[in-house]
Amino acid sequence: MLKKYYSFALFFSCLIGLSQNNFTLKIELIGSGNETIKEGNAYLFDAKTNQIIKTESIVDKQLIFTSLNEGNYTLLITCEEFEEFEQKVFLNKNLTLKIELTKINFTELNEIVVKGNKKTFTNSNGNIKVDIANSIFKAIPNPIDLLSKLPGIQISGDQENISIIGRGNPLIYIDNQRVGINDLNTLSVEDIKTLEIIKNPSSKYEAEGRAVILITRKLSKKDKFETTISEVASVKKRFNNYLGINSNFKKNKTEIKTNFNYNQLNPWESAANNLEIPNDNITSNFIAESYSKRRQFILGGGLYHQINENDYLSFNLSGKIQKDNDENTTNTFHDQNNVQNKIETLNNNDENRNFLNSFVNYNKKIKPLDINLFTGFQFSNFNQKSNSIIQNNYDNTQFDLTQNRNQKFNVDVFSGRTDLEKTFKNEMKWEVGALYLSAEANTDFEVLDFISNNNENSNYNFKEKNISGYTQLSGKIKKINYSLGLRTENTSIKGKYANDTFLLIDKDYTNFFPKIQLDIPIDSTKTISFNYAKSISRPNYSSTSQISIYTNPYLVYSRNINLNPTITDEISGTFQYKDKSVKLNFYRSKDPVNFAFSYDSTVNLITFNSINYTKESGIDLEFTLPFKHNIWSSTNSFNFIVNKIEDKSAVFNESKPYLYYYSNHIFELPKEFNFSITGWGFTERKEGIFKRNSLFIMNLTLSKTLLKNLDCTVSFNDVFRNMNFNEDLTINNIASKGIYYTDTREISLSIRYKFGKIKDSNYQERDIDQNSNRIR
Asked: Comparing C-alpha atoms, which of 171, 177, 178, 182 is closest to residue 143?
């Protein structure tokens, strides 16, 4: 089990007298006969469970394991041209070992395989880490589908929004660089090494978010040229195909990575709603269905150069080119003042979505001051163009041309950041950093109305600047690990229509975000943790777009440029016993964002968009219970939640506890077959204003590796076709009973073939800390 503890700090001076933990194990290596020790690694196992806890590489004939708890361990050292070394170690203080490695004289050892019970899932204080590269999950065709298979992560029906149960929308980091959902869509699953769900992020991460999804990409330790070709054939309502090519070339200290994906997709989606407006004597029911022909080109390339032991330079460029041809049909029954109409609406929409992201990062170790300096710059662009031709057929007569909509949306984001990190001899660490972000979005909106001849043209421009800084101090006082952090962010937002003289949006605000974390180890198997955090969730840049979707003559979906950010305060406590944990979390949010309906009687139009509700509060009791027995390993998560959303414009019904559950089971079968079964769902959810349905989803996967380099995986997702979402609410005197149907039932075959040449190298893997954006 990987024992990774995140520090927490509160001012509890009364908590003293507990046993000493977080020790350091230092190892000095000597080669027999003064032989030179080359590349090697050390593995530290839990002596009871035989699970890998930490892995370290040899640097200058030394190995250092830090932040270890008291207990019994097994140390395994593997080093080129030396015999494998194994030793039992009991740790109850800082310890230094001198170990002499024996030279192999009878044969040259080119490859060493360390066999340990490496888990797909590891749990530390409720934070889940998933080994993607060595698990059955590596066959999933894209990162969004991958996330949907993991505990606590929810993907919206349009796959444009990610949320974590009890935590809201998370920040997404790739190699510690903050990205948006478009960046995620340009990443190949083949490049992902691990994925971690961090539920108590420190002040070093942006204040925008209560959780972090941290994706670590693969970096090579050996010189090699390697190419992986993958093909996924997927049958949903229609056929989908994913083709990917990933190449990796590494020579000495320079590594180059490229990827190319071509996807031919045919997504389907449907939504229905029964709307009633008693005050205006209106009943409007509709069901909408959409079939799309989607073509995607996903390209990426990156360069990583290790200048010396501590310094590196990296560059990455990625992009996605997507074209959609949509055929949308809506059937509506509308009754207003006892005048009834049946309308069939056809909306043929052609859309192009292009995304580009690039970044440069530089890391430098200032040795005289023992300070680590990081600097990163990033530029992103998202461009969307759509053309819609809309026709209506009233009461089975004939289709008449109604509207032609031409809409364009473009957003550019530039950001830069600098981080300094200083570690003192008493193991206290001080971190300080600053970030600058500038975004500009522009919407061109043109509607030609053939019925009223009332044409509409508008151009809306949005600008945002964000300047933030943070400082964080972490360390330990005797037995208590602490982390005290403060982040401050100033945001300036301006928005106006081109033809207006005055600004429509003019906001300038500064917020402070304290974070206090405390970690109290009781013994080698038990830990108590406390956390307080204040965070912010800003509207995505897409909310500034004036692009709207015509549903029927009485209903339109649009954005809301007047959204305010959501501010959340929360406090939590966690108890961990070995690899199992229980966490209690209380949170309270101001101005939470949810969808709502409103009616404008002057134009007889219902609008569906996002608004700020007054407040949201809740309690979440979470149990994380991993289990392993022989060939069977299981990860189970249970969240008992009471969530209450309130607003004066909505009818408040009741708020009752509900359960979210997730259970993943992996079986290592004979002849190298792996079988996985995953079930997750909710009980019925009553959250004050909203009432949502219960849900149960089951996914099955079977995989096998043939001829060492050929991976084959068969998947059956949403076995019972239950992924349909119901949502009832009454707001602005409009009663809504909605249902959203998804196209998630899927049978797929994935084939991955890897070929190339690998040879030894002294390259050491490093993590990268980079900059941010939030384009959607």
From this structure: 182
**Cα 441–Cα 443–Cα 444 angle in degrees, nearest 5:** 150
Q: Residue 110: is its pLDDT beyond 50?
A: no
3-state secondary structure of 599: strand
Tell me how far apart the alpha carbons of residues 399 and 396 are, in angstroms, rounded to a whole number.
9
pLDDT, one tens digit per residue, over 111-166 is 444 444 457 888 877 788 888 888 878 878 788 888 888 888 888 766 677 888 88
Q: How many CA atoms lie within 13 A of 439 on its CB side?
A: 27
DSSP for residue 309: S
Q: Return the pLDDT at 16.
A: 32
Per-residue b/e over 376-397, b at no fewer than 16 CB within 10 Å?
bbbbbbbebbbebebbbbeeee
> For 143, phi and psi rounded to 5 degrees?
-65, -35
Name residues whose C-beta falls within 8 Å of residue 588's C-beta, 6 or more positions apart in sequence: 568, 569, 570, 615, 616, 617
Q: CA–CA separation, 512 vs 507, rounded Å?
A: 17
- 669: how many CB neighbours lie within 10 A of its CB? 11
- Among residues 647, 653, 654, the alpha carbon closest in space to that of 612 is found at 647
Helix (H) or strand (E) holding 327: strand 312-336
Q: Out of 43-52, 382-391, 577-586, which region has the weakest mean confidence (pLDDT)?
A: 43-52
What are 690's two structure tokens? 């909203």
The letter for the amino acid at 732 is: N
- The token pair that represents 740 in the structure block: 């959203």
State which amino acid sits at residue 189.
V
Sign of CA dihedral 578, 582, 584, 585: positive
H helices of 656-758, in order, are none
Length of the chain counted residue by residue? 776
**What is the rounded CA–CA span in Å between residue 582 and residue 209?**
22
> 382 forms bridges with which residues in the sheet?
355, 411
* Helix H or strand E encompassing 184: helix 181-185
- pLDDT of 55 > 50? The answer is yes
Which residues on neighbouring strands pair with residue 130, listed in sequence order? 121, 195
Query: What pLDDT does 508 receive?
Result: 94
Could you write out the DSSP letters of every residue in 108-165?
------------SEEEETTEEEEE-TTSGGGG-SSHHHHHHTSTTEEE-TTS--EEET
764: its two tokens: 């050491």
Can you list the positions of beta strands (E) in 162-201?
162-164, 171-174, 177-179, 192-198
